[in-house]
Amino acid sequence: VLLDIAAAILVTFIIRSSVIRPIIDVRNAIQDIAQGNGDLTKRLSEKGVRELAELSRSFNDFVERLDDLGKNVNLTTLQLAEKAKEIQIKDEEKQREEKSRNSIFKT
Hints:
Mean pLDDT: 90
Number of helices: 2
Distance between the termini: 111 Å
Low-confidence stretches: none
Order of helices and strands: HH
Helix content: over 70%
Number of strands: 0
Shape: rod-shaped
């Protein structure tokens, strides 16, 4: 009887560490991203039960793409801000030239 109890505890521990823990890790990572708190540089372990390793690998690929997308958005935003500043500077120069031209014709 004690041997059966010990075996049951051992099986429970093995299932918990090899199946349930990775599922909890995936769930927590998805929740973090969904709530806007996720660190897109973190990756899940791809070790363990084959199906769970594949799930983790797919999740990691997804998060990597999200991270790349975020980096591209940041880069594009910076480029757009730079172009907007250039346009603003050119517009201000045109306005100064126009004022200068108008003041010459008024006198």
